[in-house]
Write a structure and sequence with these properties.
The complex is a heterodimer. Chain A is an all-beta fold. In chain A, 0% of the residues lie in helices and 44% in strands. In chain A, the strands form three sheets. In chain A, strands 2, 5, 6, 9, 10 and 11 form a six-stranded mixed sheet that branches. Chain A has a three-stranded antiparallel sheet with strand order 3-8-7, with no helix packed on it. In chain A, strands 1-4 form a two-stranded antiparallel sheet. The relative contact order of chain A is 0.34. By secondary structure, chain B is mainly β. Chain B has no helices and eleven strands. Chain A binds chain B through residues 43-46, 49, 86, 93-102, and chain B through 3, 33, 35, 41-45, 48, 55-56, 58, 90, 92, 97-98, 100-105.
Chain lengths: 109, 112
Amino acid sequence: AQRVTQPEKLLSVFKGAPVELKCNYSYSGSPELFWYVQYSRQRLQLLLRHISRESIKGFTADLNKGETSFHLKKPFAQEEDSAMYYCALRAGGYQKVTFGIGTKLQVIP
Amino acid sequence: KAGVTQTPRYLIKTRGQQVTLSCSPISGHRSVSWYQQTPGQGLQFLFEYFSETQRNKGNFPGRFSGRQFSNSRSEMNVSTLELGDSALYLCASSRDRAAEQYFGPGTRLTVT
């Protein structure tokens, strides 16, 4: 069975500092990985997916199959980045999506 | 385009009762998935429906059931409610089974 681990429940960084939200997964095949974000009083929304290999709002994430990780990074944190971030995995095109427990990012002005 | 809507937004029920939650997907979306969100467990997958058929199911007891109608609207039912069923229930729709999911605002269920 697949599993997604986000080791930090809370990550506090100062504005302008680099951000790295960690995500590790366990799955023996080739998964599809996602990052979702939930801003205060807003709906959960997709931030990025590894197959797109794009940067959204300055965030990037690289799938490292050797380390089974999909860490989310941003070089300079902004106050508007404060939110809950969820890493998620889908084992195959039509399989269920498994979510991590989430990391709350707090950007300190 | 209107987003995913869920009704009701808030619900208070008593142990032993049953409840039905509704989800209307984005127009044109045919896949609907349901999740239970709690502070301790995060988002846990309940089930997925596509073309009126359940395609995937999570590890929840049989008290949790769902269905999808021909217009892609979906309902989930929880029978014999327990205190531990108190949670935010999220619905997500997607154009097809492998496409991006769009989430609704959720239904907050409180069981007393």
